[in-house]
Specification:
Layout (H helix, E strand, L loop, with lengths): L21 H9 L3 H15 L7 H16 L5 H14 L9 H20 L7 H14 L3 H9 L2 H9 L2
Length: 165
């Protein structure tokens, strides 16, 4: 969905109130440094999901996030993590289904992202990006619970988990 499409102004975000994600997504497409991306990602993280809730703005944002990530040749954990979080939330019965008109683009973008991450796997040097990539792979292979578990296994939780074994 083109970022200039008027539909963006009609979509709700994670708080179930209108949120035009296209504004921040356009900014994200334009910026070229990590420092400039930080406040954009902070807003997108805040607005696209809230305590397990996502809405249509979240779903419409996923193909855009993937496109921007690939265009920038990025492996930034924010791109991967937002997609993982939205996809995990999408599977909850309390969240809406993806609209028919978005289904093809949404699922095709997930496949494209999977191929991008596989082809760049050796270049992932950040621990968080690696963990989220593994979570993404699990989720896109239908292993939703495993993906959710990997998503939650940050460094502190992982150490605590491994103490049991």
């Amino acid at each position: 969905m083109d970022l200039d499409n008027k539909i963006w102004t009609t979509l709700n975000g994670g708080y179930k109130i209108p949120y035009d994600a296209s504004i921040q997504l356009k900014q994200l497409r334009k910026v070229d440094t990590k420092d400039l991306m930080i406040p954009i990602f902070e807003e997108l993280w805040e607005e696209l999901h809230h305590q397990g809730d996502v809405e249509l703005a979240s779903y419409y944002s996923v193909p855009q996030l993937i496109s921007i990530c690939i265009d920038k040749k990025s492996l930034d954990y924010n791109f991967i993590g937002l997609c993982v979080t939205i996809e995990i939330c999408r599977l909850s019965e309390t969240n809406p289904i993806i609209p028919k008109e978005l289904e093809q683009e949404y699922f095709d973008s997930l496949k494209e992202f999977q191929l991008y991450l596989i082809s760049n796997f050796d270049n992932i040097t950040d621990d968080t990006s690696l963990r989220l990539t593994l979570a993404f792979f699990a989720i896109t292979k239908g292993q939703h619970d495993l993906g959710k578990a990997i998503d939650n296994l940050d460094e502190d939780v992982l150490k605590e988990f491994l103490v049991q074994f």
